[in-house]
Amino acid sequence: MRLPIVHNPAYDAKFSPDHRFPMSKYRLLAEAIMEEGLAGPGDFHVPAPAPASWVKLAHDPAYVDRVYALDVPAEIEKAIGFEITERTVLRARCATAGTVLAARLALEHGVACNTAGGSHHAGRHRGAGFCTFNDVAVAARVMLADGEIGSALVLDLDVHQGDGTAEIFSGDDRVFTASVHAERNYPTVKQVSDYDLGLPDGMEDLAYLKTLALVLEELRERVAPDIVFYNAGVDVHRDDRLGRLSLTDRGIEQRERMVFSHFRRRGIPVCGVIGGGYSKDVEAIARRHAILHRVASEFAF
C-alpha cells in the first residue's frame, strides 16, 4: 500500500517570501510528493486543528491559553521568530494534530509521515526557534494518555539540538529523547536529553553515516519503544543556511534508509516529521524534505 502521508494546506501560513522562515516549503513539499507519485491530491490524510486539551499535555496551560487567545507577549513572539496570528496559530494546531494522526497511522501501518512537524525548540512554557508548539511532545503525551503506547523514542537528527523536547520529557522515563546535532549550532545553551551527541562542524556523508550506525546500535541497547518519532531535519545539508554540517542529498537519503530499516527490522513503528530546512531556494528545500517520504514509502505495508 501507499505510505500514509498527513498534510493540511493550513501548514502554509503564507509568509512573505523574504521572511527568514521558508513557510511556502509545506505547500511545495506536498506538490513534490505528488510529482513523485507518492500521493495523489485526494490521498493525503488531513488533520483537524488540535484541541487545547491535547496541547496542554505537553505545554503549560497558561501559555497554551495565551496562544489560542492570540495574546502572546512580544518577547515570546521574538523568541519564536514570527507574530502569533490566527493563521500561525491554525498552522501550529494543524501541524501538531498532524503528528498525532501520523503516529496513529504508523501504529497501524508500520510507518507514516507528516509533511510538517519537528517543532523541537518549543519547551513547556514557551515557544522558540520558529516553533510554537512541540508537536512530537504533544503526540507522545496524547498517545500515552490514551493508552495507545506505553513508551516512545524521539530520535532527533535535525542539525539543531531538540532542546524543547528534552526539557518537556525531563524526568519522564516513558519517553527517551535522543538528539544528534551540530554542537556549535543553535541553541547556545543546550538541554540534557537522555542521549546527546554533538557533532563537529563540516561533517560529511561518510563520517556522519558511520556515526549514526553506532548511535543506532547504542540506542538498541538502551531502549525498546512502542514507537519512534523521527525528526528528519534536512538542515544537515551542506547548502543549508542555518546548518553547520555538510551532508549531500545522497547522504540524507542514506540516513533515512538507515533509520527506517533499523527500526522496521526490529518491528518498531516509525512516525516521520520533517524538521528544519532553510534556504532562499525553497523549492530545493521542499525536494530535500521529500526524500523522507520517498524512502519511508519503501517500508509501508
From TrEMBL:
Domain (Histone deacetylase): residue spans on this chain: 19-282
InterPro entries (alphabetical): HDAC_classIV, HDACs, His_deacetylse_dom, His_deacetylse_dom_sf, Ureohydrolase_dom_sf
Protein name: Histone deacetylase
Top-level taxon in the UniProt lineage: Bacteria
Entries under PANTHER family matching the protein: HISTONE DEACETYLASE 12, HISTONE DEACETYLASE HDAC1-RELATED
Keywords, comma-separated and alphabetical: Hydrolase
Gene Ontology molecular function terms on file: histone deacetylase activity; hydrolase activity
Pfam families, sorted: Hist_deacetyl (PF00850)
Biological process, per Gene Ontology: epigenetic regulation of gene expression
Family under the similarity heading: Belongs to the histone deacetylase family.
TM segment ranges: none
